[in-house]
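W.,

You were right to be curious about this one. When I first looked at the sequence I had no strong expectations either way, so I just let the prediction run and decided to look at it fresh. Below is the sequence, 207 residues in total, followed by the output.
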Amino acid sequence: VDLGIEAKKILVDIDKTLRNEFDLILNQSINPNTKGYEYEKAVAKFLQQYLDGIVCFNTRARILDNSLNAINTFAKMENEFDIVGSFNAAYPRMVMRTGDTITLPYDGVAAIIEVKQTLTKTSLEKDLKKFRKLDDLSYDGPYHRRRERFLQLPGKSERTKNVLLTLCQMRPVRTLFYIDSKIDGNTLVNLLEEKEAKLPEPQDFTL
């Protein structure tokens, strides 16, 4: 048995199952007059059924870091994300509720997701710019603490530690979720490469 072929079949089946389940949730939630908020709720519901018990997904949530940098980093009304997943073990998970919007401590955040009905060049550029501002926030959550544990591993060479740290996620996951697209694959790849080229070089880990 070719394990590579078998593994590919399994992944294809998983992909097909996930797509079918998401389409089912989407079809139950969406109608011709659907606004953006309904798409957000459909994506949050889909994610919640797989990660329930570990992460709680909230729609239209603000985040607040422990140094309060978010206040000056985001423009007025900009600090609101379509979906924010917070670790169930994080405490406190909720800081404040204002209408349909809640504010969550950034240190307890697992993932931040922006949901749009249609992927366009304009929407992608806007979402990437907003995500980039998250780099200015202070973060001392589970991802960061896991990195610190790697640094303290006994009997590991500096090279081994560097490899482990490279594989170790350092911040909450950021995801852009688009239902449809008006950009072809080549245009999307070129746009992302262009944006990546403009980013500053990543800093090396200090051991």
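Here's what jumped out at me. The longest strand covers residues 109-119. And, maybe more interesting for your project: The two ends are 44 Å apart (CA to CA).

Coffee later to discuss?

I.
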